[in-house]
Amino acid sequence: MEEFRKEVLVSSEEIEKKVKELGEEITKDYQGKELMLVGILKGAAIFMADLARNIKIPVTMDFMAVSSYGNSTKSSGVVRIIKDLDSNVEGKHILIVEDIIDTGLTLGYLTDNLKKRGASSVRICTLLDKPERRKVNVPVDYRGFVIPDEFVVGYGIDYAEKYRNLPDIFSIEESCD
Ligand SMILES: O=P(O)(O)OC[C@H]1O[C@H](OP(=O)(O)OP(=O)(O)O)[C@H](O)[C@@H]1O
Ligand code: HPA
Ligand SMILES: [Mg+2]
């Protein structure tokens, strides 16, 4: 990460504790319901894997890939489906699992899209929420951490496809030297 100044924003220990709490809350709320977790690739892959193991009711899991950032730190504003779900969501309770909500463009598009397919309910679980940057208002049902307006990497989240494997979440800033 030599091209950046970096700082731990959320440690792996804090993440682990929060993911457990979110899992407990989701377990309680979806008792007796058929829950389908929809992870948004690639950023949410690591969060999805940890969260799913902290949910103690049977769930199904599917994934979508939607990209608006490409290799940039700025959203292009155009949401593109790269990989669609394998399964039908009609009549299912969907919980979208995201790593981060920034402008809200990705999730605004996705919630509309899944509701139109006839899901019984569509809720959102995000590990990180950066509310200062919101352009589209999306209702967040389960939220891990509210973070300041800083570009972050780690625990699945990338900059130009790098740093997803870092166990902690870092904020990064281009260094001046
Ligand atoms: O609220 P927004 O401004 O739309 O930003 C949030 C989205 O951007 C990132 O995905 P990205 O498009 O970078 O794909 P990736 O998950 O493969 O990194 C992130 O994982 C969210 O899906
Ligand atoms: O802060 C961020 N980091 C990486 N990807 C992102 N996509 C939206 N916001 C971010
Ligand atoms: Mg990305």
Q: At the first level of CATH, what is the class? A: Alpha Beta
Helical residue percent band:
10-25%
Report the bound ligands by name, code or SMILES.
Answer: 1-O-pyrophosphono-5-O-phosphono-alpha-D-ribofuranose, hypoxanthine, magnesium ion
* SSE ordering: EHEHEEEHEEEE
Supply the number of structural domains.
1
Q: Enumerate the strands of the largest sheet in spatial order, edge to edge or round the barrel.
A: 4-3-2-5-6-7
Biggest β-sheet description = 6 strands, mixed
C-alpha Rg (nearest Å): 16 Å
What is the third-level CATH name, the topology? Rossmann fold
Low-confidence stretches: none
Look at the structure and give the mean pLDDT: 93
Number of strands: 9
Compose a concise summary of this entry.
It is built from 3 helices and 9 strands. It is α/β, with parallel strands linked by helices and 177 residues long. The longest helix has 18 residues.
Structure description:
By secondary structure, this protein is an alpha/beta fold. The chain has one domain (9-70, 78-174): Rossmann fold (3-Layer(aba) Sandwich). It is built from three helices and nine strands. The protein has helices spanning 12-29, 45-52, 105-116; strands spanning 4-10, 35-41, 59-67, 80-83, 93-101, 121-129, 142-146, 151-153, 169-174. Helix 1 crosses helix 2 (45-52). The site of 1-O-pyrophosphono-5-O-phosphono-alpha-D-ribofuranose has 18 residues, from strand 2, strand 5 and helix 3.
